[in-house]
Design a protein that fits this description.
With 238 residues, the chain is an alpha/beta fold. Helix content is 39%, strand content 24%. The chain has one domain: 3-Layer(aba) Sandwich (Rossmann fold). It binds adenosine-5'-triphosphate. Adenosine-5'-triphosphate binds next to strand 2 and helix 2. It comes from Streptomyces gelaticus.
């Protein structure tokens, strides 16, 4: 009985849980195994870095964990939700409403034709919020202030430096108060000072707001900001 209770407790308090997740590419007999029976639990309210050499499976881990790719076998859960049980439409809604993303390239993170504040509130608007609603506008303003860019919201992303654009991407990742924020090499194109600002924002999202962050990085300095470091090697967790 005790084991059952423990299992239930672990499922409830985990923001992300992988059970024997494998991802294979190519045809049977000539397959590449990008992810090889990976199991892990990421507790809610933690900052986890995923590190490892090039080709070790870090991106595949993130893609499967965030519902951007479907594993060949195994189970991925965000909170209590089994992603494998969801239709494409439900998975899209889950990514929009319950997950935040910060990608590697600031050029890819933001929509150039939208203002900075429109970029921040975009996930809310995509979920049906009125972009002219004062509460939506106020939320955008608050988050921009939080990332040190108060008063800059009306301009376009191109008026910002790369580091500032990544801070806008963090603000956008926070806007829906997601259960997990996935960051894929969020500081790869930044100078050390800008990188530290972005990493500080991710750490504060965990420490101040109790959010859960999972960050893929090849940079040991970036990984040192995390509470837990998972090391990948040959598609497995070491
Ligand atoms: N779509 C695909 N088709 C075939 N092989 C793939 C595909 N995606 C990934 N792989 C292979 O799976 C392995 C893991 O790749 P992955 O991109 O997850 O590693 P990574 O650790 O993120 O690497 P990097 O640090 O260079 O981005 C590699 O051998 C890669 O070549």
């Amino acid at each position: 009985m005790e084991a059952t209770v423990d299992t239930i407790t672990a499922v409830r308090s985990s923001a992300l849980r992988l059970e024997s997740v494998s991802r294979r590419h190519g045809r049977r007999g000539r397959e590449t195994t990008a992810l090889d029976a990976v199991s892990c639990v990421v507790p809610a309210g933690s900052f986890t870095a995923v590190v490892g050499p090039s080709g070790s499976g870090k991106s595949t881990f993130l893609q499967c964990a965030a519902g951007l790719d479907r594993p060949s076998s195994g189970t991925v859960r965000i909170g209590d939700t089994d992603l494998g049980a969801l239709s494409e439409a439900a998975l899209t809604r889950l990514r929009r409403d319950r997950i935040g993303f910060v990608f590697q390239s600031h050029a890819l993170n933001l929509v150039p034709s939208l203002s900075i504040e429109e970029n921040v509130v975009l996930p809310l608007v995509l979920a049906g919020a009125d972009p002219a609603d004062e509460r939506v506008l106020a939320r955008g303003r608050d988050l921009l202030a939080r990332v040190g860019l108060a008063g800059r919201g009306a301009r376009g992303p191109a008026t910002l430096s790369g580091g500032q654009q990544q801070r806008v991407a963090v603000a956008r990742a926070l806007v829906t108060e997601p259960e997990v924020i996935f960051a894929d090499e969020p500081t790869a194109s930044l100078d050390p000072e800008s990188a530290a600002l972005v990493l500080g924002l991710l750490r504060d999202a965990v420490r101040v707001d109790g959010r859960t962050v999972v960050m893929v990085t090849h940079d040991p300095v970036a990984a040192s900001w995390a509470d837990t470091v998972l090391t990948m090697d040959g598609g497995r967790l070491r």
